[in-house]
TrEMBL record:
Organism of derivation: Populus tomentosa
Disease resistance R13L4/SHOC-2-like LRR domain: residues covered: 79-309
Official protein name in the record: Disease resistance R13L4/SHOC-2-like LRR domain-containing protein
N-terminal signal peptide: 1-23
InterPro entries in the record: LRR_R13L4/SHOC2-like, LRR_Rcpt-Like_S/T_Kinase
Pfam families in the record: LRR_14
Membrane topology of the entry: Single-pass type I membrane protein
Domain of life: Eukaryota
Keywords assigned by UniProt, alphabetized: Cell membrane, Leucine-rich repeat, Membrane, Repeat, Signal
Keyword Signal: yes
GO terms under cellular component: plasma membrane
Record carries keyword Cell membrane: yes
C-alpha cells in the first residue's frame, strides 16, 4: 500500500506546484496587463531570494525579488513568504489571485503605475504582516474590509489617489504599528477608532483632512517615534490641551504643520535631548523662545506669532557659524526682533532670510 501513498503524494505535490505557478502567471498578467508576463519557472523550488524574474527594470532601484521558506509547515513544500515588485512601471491592477499565496508575509508593490483598488480577496491572507502600496495610482475609498487584515503590522498607502474618509475599521488592526496615509485626497477627521492602535509611525500629511488633533495621539500612542500631520482645516486646537506629555506628542521628528494650532510651545520642547526635528510651520503659536533653548538639526517655526528675540544659539555655534548653515532652520514670518549679538549681521542676506518679517 506504500506505493499507492507515494503515487498520490507525487500527484498532490505536482498539483500544488502547478497551482502555484498558475497563480503567479495570473498575478503577472494582471499586474503587467499582459505586456510582459512573469517567467516564474520553479519560483519556489528552493529557499532564498530569486533576484531576477525577467521583468523589465526601468530604474536602478528596481526590485523583483521572491523570498521562499521551506520550513513553515510539515507538508514538505517551499512557500512564497515575500514578494517585492518595486520601481518596475507595472501598469495593471492589484490581482485577486495574490490571495492564493497563502503564506505571504510581505508584499511590496511600491512605485509602479498600478490602478484600481485593493481586492477584498486579500483579506484571507492571514499571514500578511507588511503591505506597501506606496506611489501608485490606486483610487476610490480606502476599503473598510482592510480592517479584516488582522495580521498587518505595517501598512503604507502613501502617494496614491485615495479619496473619501479614513475608514473606522482601520482601528481593528490591533497589531498595526506603522500606518502611512500621506499624499492622497482623503477628507474628514481622523477616526476615533484609531485610539485602539499602538502606533510607532503615523503619517497623514498632504490630504484634505479637517478637525482637531485627536486627544488619543498623546494619550494612547505611547510608543510614537514618527508623527506627521499637516494641512488639516478645522477649529483651533490649543497645544497645551493635547494630553499628556511632550515625549509622547513631540517625538523624534514631529511635523504638525498648518493644522490651526494655538498656544505656547511647551517648555520641554526646548530642553529635551530626544527631539531631532520640529515643524510647527503655519500655525498660530505664540510666546517666546527661551534664550537657553536647545537647537535642533531641523527646526521650522515660520508663519506663527512668536515674539521676543531669536536666541543667540540659533545663529551661532562654537565655530562662530550661522546655525542655519549647519542646520536646517526657519523662524521667518513671526514677530521676532534681532538679538543684540546679531546687530553686526543685520545686513546679511542670510540673517534677513532666517528671521524675515512680513
Amino acid at each position: 500500500m506504500l506505493w499507492i501513498w507515494i503515487y498520490f503524494d507525487k500527484i498532490f505535490r505536482g498539483c500544488m506546484i502547478l497551482e502555484l505557478v498558475t497563480a503567479l502567471k495570473q498575478i503577472g498578467e494582471t499586474l503587467t496587463q499582459g505586456r510582459q508576463p512573469f517567467e516564474v519557472g520553479h519560483a519556489c523550488n528552493q529557499p532564498g531570494p530569486l533576484h531576477d524574474m525577467n521583468l523589465s527594470k526601468q530604474d536602478s532601484d528596481a526590485n523583483s525579488t521572491v523570498m521562499c521558506n521551506c520550513t513553515l509547515s510539515n507538508d514538505g513544500y517551499c512557500h512564497i513568504t515575500s514578494l517585492y515588485l518595486k520601481w518596475l512601471s507595472l501598469p495593471g491592477k492589484l490581482p485577486p489571485e495574490m490571495a492564493k499565496l497563502a503564506y505571504l508575509e510581505i508584499l511590496d508593490l511600491s512605485r509602479n503605475y498600478i490602478s484600481g483598488n485593493i481586492p477584498e480577496e486579500w483579506a484571507s491572507m492571514k499571514h500578511l504582516t507588511k503591505l506597501f502600496l506606496t506611489s501608485n495610482r490606486l483610487s476610490g475609498n480606502i476599503p473598510g474590509y482592510l480592517g479584516r487584515f488582522r495580521s498587518l503590522t505595517n501598512l503604507s498607502l502613501e502617494a496614491n489617489q485615495f479619496s473619501g474618509t479614513i475608514p473606522s475599521q482601520l482601528g481593528d488592526l490591533v497589531n498595526l504599528t506603522f500606518l502611512v496615509l500621506s499624499s492622497n485626497q482623503l477628507e474628514g477627521t481622523l477616526p476615533k477608532t484609531l485610539a485602539k492602535l499602538n502606533l510607532t509611525h503615523f503619517r497623514a500629511s498632504d490630504n484634505n483632512l479637517s478637525g482637531r488633533i485627536p486627544d488619543f495621539i498623546g494619550k494612547y500612542w505611547r510608543n510614537l517615534v514618527r508623527l506627521r500631520i499637516t494641512d488639516m482645516s478645522g477649529p483651533e486646537s490649543n497645544l497645551s490641551t493635547i494630553p499628556p506629555r511632550v515625549n509622547y506628542l513631540f517625538v523624534n521628528c514631529p511635523v504638525l504643520r498648518n493644522i490651526n494650532l494655538t498656544g505656547v510651545i511647551p517648555t520641554d520642547v526646548w530642553t529635551t535631548d530626544s527631539l531631532k526635528m520640529l515643524d510647527l510651520t503655519f500655525n498660530k503659536m505664540e510666546g517666546r523662545i527661551p534664550q537657553d533653548a536647545k537647537t535642533r538639526e531641523f527646526m521650522f517655526l515660520s508663519g506663527n506669532k512668536l515674539n521676543g528675540s531669536v536666541p543667540d544659539s540659533f545663529f551661532k555655534t562654537d565655530k562662530k557659524m550661522y546655525v542655519s548653515e549647519m542646520y536646517h532652520s526657519d523662524v521667518s514670518y513671526n514677530n521676532f526682533s534681532l538679538p543684540p549679538s546679531c546687530q553686526d549681521h543685520q545686513g546679511s542676506k542670510h540673517v534677513q532670510e532666517f528671521i524675515h518679517q512680513e
